[in-house]
Amino acid sequence: MPFPFEVPFGAVQADLDAHVDAVFSSLRSDFLTLPKGAGFLEYPVFERGYQALKQATGSFSDLSAPAVLAAVFRVPVALLVLRAMLGFSPPEWAWLTGQLTGKEISQKAARSLDRRIRMQPLEPLSDTNTVLAERMRLLVETACRLLSEGAPPEPDGILHRLDKVDTRNGPASLSSLAQLGVPYAMLLYERFLGRPFAAHRDSVSELVGDVLETCIEDLLTAEGVSFRKTKRAERLAGFDQAPDFVIPDEFAPRAVIEAKLTEDDGTARDKVTRIQHLDHLSREGVGPGERRFEVIACIAGRGFKVRREDMKKLLLATQGKVFTLQNLDRMIECTTLRHFRSRR
Predict the structure, then answer these.
(1) Is residue 127 very low, low, confident or very high in pLDDT (cuts 50, 70, 90)?
(2) How many Å apart are CA 42 and CA 187, to the nearest integer?
(3) I need a surface site. Which of 113, 134, 138, 208 has the fewest CB within 10 A?
């Protein structure tokens, strides 16, 4: 079965299901792998932070803020271990710190501190930086207070974030686990609630998506095709929603490219709706059956294989110009982009 971009649009319309199958056959998923990205913490580094905290607190039996703070300044990655014990994101920790101390730490400052430590996890920090030292002191004092108190009783139907196997009963829980280990069933249960690699998956989501856009950019550059690549949330003249690529530019668009890699069908549906809107924009101000620019979709990931009806909508909105990573090398020759080649 030929791909939909290889045949006239009338043939795609006449046998839409078969062409959906053709696109599905070329979709691949790489959800089993993730890029590490800058600032990824290997386990041996994380474990050094854990050992620094364990030693400073006597196997977590004494959660005094000064002892913990000294360990964090000496081995900064210990602050990330402390955050993992709480189970909070940097902004959540900062917000609670403001609530409990009355001294605000912005979300931006919390994220910057977290990233600074991930980039240099074992480089000792100096307490001469008064702003940094004060923020770390407030965060550590908040953490020590919460971990010492443990999870308060809650009414039926409410789950407290500290009601975890290691923090439920304050230092007693922490000390017990540090000495005896974690019951495997409980570890699996809390992993089930939190999704494996959840925080890392979120932190590299843009990096994952960049894989497809980078391939498109490399292809256009290699063929000498003039293009305008838009930035996130950028506004372009003539577009209420800027596409990922405009060829040759937004002032005289002849083609637009929307790119998306997703393993989630909901995100895929959102992208299909976005491409349908671009198709509508392409028909404004021109005669019946005409378009101001060609709409091209480049997709990857299993999210696009979930709903056949969405793929049909995508094929109709692009008039069959749907490409995947497996056939992306055909995109220029099979679209209006071939008219913009300056290299052969």
Answers:
(1) confident
(2) 20
(3) 134
